[in-house]
Amino acid sequence: MCGIFGIVTANNQVLGTTLIEAGRRLSYRGYDSVGCASLSDDGTIDLRKDVGKVDEVASRLNFSEMYGKRGILQLRWATFGSPSQVNAQPHLDSDGDMVGAHNGNVVNNNELRAQFIARGMNVRSDNDGETCVHAVELYIDQGHDFVEAIRCAYHDLEGDYAFVIGKVHEERLYAIKKGSSLVVGLGDDFTCVSSDLPSILPFTQKVVRIYDGEIVTLHADGIEIRAVESGERINRPPEFIHESMEAVQKGGFPHFMLKEIHEQSTVAGELLHILDYSDQLETYLDKVSSARNVYLIGCGTSYHACILGSVYLSQLAKRPAIPVLAPQFIAQYAHSVDHQDVGIFVSQSGETKDVLNALEVAQKRGMAVLSLVNVIGSTLMRASEAYLPLGCGYEISVPATKTYTNQVIAFLYLAQKLGSYQDLGLYKLPELIAKTISIVEPKVSQIVSRIKNRNDFYCLGYGLTYPVALEGALKLKEITYAHCEGMLSTEFKHGPLSAVTEGFPVIFIAGPQDIPIIVSGINEVTCRGGYAITIGEDDSRLHSNAHDVVVIPSTNTYFNSILSIIPLQLLSYKMSMNLGYDPDYPRNLSKTLTVD
Ligand code: M6R
Questions:
Q1: Global pTM?
Q2: Mutate to test the pocket of ligand 1, among 348, 356, 481, 565 (most ligand atoms within 8 A of CB)
Q3: What is the pLDDT of residues 102-131, one digit of tens each?
Q4: Domains and CATH numbers, the chain
């Protein structure tokens, strides 16, 4: 959680614009508050920070004029300490001659803070980023050099984190990784370090990945990496990343979310191509078909893809697979799995802490680890025996859209390969996705104008559309802040039906095979005054029973389950716009949740 960026240059210069640019590209990681510190030759630290998003705070506090040889930026997603100016990062040490910022969680924050206060240190905030700075200060004050002080602090700071830190009258910054991601960029006369690649690639494509338990010292002309435990130097050659940064521009769309919804057709085609030529597929299929039990493990949207994936695997490949939320996998199944079982870990980022916790347990129990992951080079990808990339490129908007669609397409592809008797013609999907986007928009806008004042919804599906209902409900609540519960349609009458009063909106997702049962559900709602919105193929039974029908292209039941999320993504987007929210950065959330 949170994002950090640090840069070391050869000469004093305006660093503010570079820090703002890096901040914009990291802002999917947290946007409760933002801060910058610049360190110049005269021994001063210019620290500016406040609550708000990068551009707001940057213009309020004139980040663009910040000057120096070294700079640190942090974007915060609050865990320890409320989102406030004082808890915003970076933080100073007691004397104000050292500054640092972190990403992640220091779980013994309260204990350490109490110790630092008892020692008379100047602790200004509740935030665990400040605790990292004081933890280093403690050992510097005892006479250790910087690297040694960080090595000692590393043992005191419990949890998963990465931090970057620097001191006046030095030419260096230092960064350490324990659990949270960290990448270094090497330029001609600068080096930089960040939580993620998108903030580095505009400046340099020469990068070095830092691994857990490593400290990196950044000089303007190079870096040194050391192992925390042994103190030994580690030599790691840089990699060249040939990625286009176009993907992190909005490309004419008002929001990344809308752009990413529209990209679904293209990336679906790219995924199918990747899968057809994947050298990992054979291992994948072998492991899945020979396993005793297969678990599909993820969180949030990725978990919803797991549920739909399990239906595909069961129906098409006769391969039962158990979808489970990552933390619940530990509680419910960790005790009963071993080397005979396989886990398919599903994650956009490949860095979600809840998923990595489950991965660690699965590995300890000897399970085979496979993954479906979007971010190449992520921790999950690297830990997997075989992985299939989602091929979506950067997904910047916090609400997952294109990665969900490619997750379910990947599952459908696997199910079809394992079943091997039915050719669904998956290459028709990109065109069907594009067609769905273009035909549903006007109807979706009409529905938004009818339900815009409501803030309580249900979203109901059945069979193949049950996971779609869960995902649609998540999208709606995530970016409109309304209450929306996704549910199996037949469960509605077992309790929640009591919520229905005049005009109460209920959204139904009708797979072509389930229209009779959905029609029953619709009538249970409408006869009590509820307002029924249905997503489905052009079918007179839906038109004559529901108030509104969003018609999607007629196709087979499997493709239907993929297409039917699109109207819900657009509905959520348009509702969010209508309310004046920013769907890319919904309040309180972050794209990558690297904390417990
Ligand atoms: O990166 P991951 O797929 O592991 O992330 C898991 C969830 O945090 C994520 O899917 C979240 O639910 C989405 N932002 C919802 O749109």
A1: 0.84
A2: 348
A3: 999 999 999 999 999 999 999 999 999 999
A4: 3-249 (3.60.20.10), 254-422 (3.40.50.10490), 436-583 (3.40.50.10490)
